[in-house]
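FAQ

Q: What does a record look like?
A: Structure on top, sequence underneath. For example:
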């Protein structure tokens, strides 16, 4: 939540304006004169300042001058909100470095639009986004929308609740959206002509799936089924295309978010081709353990057949390996799933 410092000597205007800003979702700090306002700015560094000009102790011009001289405050957006309506006053304020100049009386929407505009101009894409955090995806979408001017991009999406074993899409369908797992787990499967099921991926919180058919503009080559009751966020194909192609910086960041998963899949395929069975089982357990929040209490709740399909082995071979791991104290098998007890030891083991 952005913080706005409101410097205004009129009690009525200060209280009313602060209430409007708080209703708009901002955190508001207030000051009754310029000196108090500068002290609060030095203490908290607000995201934006709304400041009157004519005030006791220190006027708005003085406040803006101090901001300009202080490296920590110089880049904070600054909006004058004043009864001084002469053109010369406005010119002076802008020449001193104000970002906007609004005269009293003012419309609420005029002030809110000016604030939103200044804050959006400052918004930049972050070097990385933690998509496993509840607001991680929405945070990226809001930044992408502001930086890339992606009009129509929904930046605050509601998850869709799906029950266990529900199909998300089926092989041969035309892709219409990108999927993001907010909670739960989804598997993608491909069935052989003999009816055997091969799991091609397991996706947990913070991961996208269904993007390759969108990129290739081809029907789905596999099906997606909910493994554990899941909350999925949908990004329609049109918005997926906007994110990739409308703005170079946004597109590069979006690809990086997807590429982490692509790189992981490449490593999995290499592992399936060249690693021993114990190593493959260990790597798969570690990956699923991390998806299940990475705590010792987290359980991997996959059927043995599903887990064997993910690893690319027969269920009997998987069961023998799990028994070895259990006897070595690396894992615990319970009625509800598998718990990884010693992830570091499991990771360092050489088989």
């Amino acid at each position: 939540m952005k913080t706005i410092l409101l410097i205004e000597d009129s009690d009525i205007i200060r209280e009313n304006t602060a209430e409007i800003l708080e209703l708009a979702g901002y955190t508001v700090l207030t000051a009754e004169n310029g000196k108090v306002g500068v002290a609060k700015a030095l203490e908290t560094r607000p995201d934006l300042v709304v400041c009157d000009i004519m005030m006791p102790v220190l006027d708005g011009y003085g406040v803006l001058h101090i901001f300009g001289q202080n490296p920590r405050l110089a880049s904070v957006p600054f909006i004058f909100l004043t009864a001084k309506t002469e053109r010369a006053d406005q010119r002076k304020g802008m020449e001193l470095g104000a970002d906007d100049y609004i005269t009293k009386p003012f419309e609420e929407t005029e002030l809110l639009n000016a604030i939103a505009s200044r804050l959006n101009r400052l918004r930049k894409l972050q070097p990385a986004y933690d998509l496993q955090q509840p607001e991680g995806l929405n945070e990226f979408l809001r930044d992408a929308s502001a930086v890339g001017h992606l009009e129509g991009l929904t930046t605050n999406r509601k998850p869709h609740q799906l029950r266990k074993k529900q199909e998300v899409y089926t092989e041969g369908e035309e892709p219409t959206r990108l999927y993001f797992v907010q909670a739960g787990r989804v598997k993608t499967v491909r069935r052989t002509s003999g009816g055997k099921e091969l799991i091609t991926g397991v996706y947990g919180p913070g991961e996208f799936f269904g993007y390759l058919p969108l990129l290739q503009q081809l029907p789905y080559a596999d099906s997606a089924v909910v493994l554990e009751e899941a909350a999925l966020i949908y990004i329609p194909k049109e918005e997926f295309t906007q994110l990739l192609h409308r703005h170079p910086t946004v597109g590069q960041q979006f690809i990086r978010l997807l590429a982490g998963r692509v790189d992981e899949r490449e490593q999995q395929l290499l592992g399936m081709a060249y690693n021993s069975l114990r190593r493959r089982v260990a790597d798969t357990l570690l990956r699923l353990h991390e998806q299940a929040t990475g705590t010792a209490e987290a359980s991997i709740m996959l059927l043995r057949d599903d887990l064997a399909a993910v690893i690319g082995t027969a269920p009997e071979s998987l069961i023998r390996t799990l028994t070895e791991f259990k006897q070595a104290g690396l894992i615990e098998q319970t009625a509800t799933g598998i718990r990884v007890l010693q992830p570091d030891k499991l990771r360092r083991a050489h088989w």
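Q: Is there anything notable about this one?
A: The CA atoms of residues 65 and 96 lie 7 Å apart.
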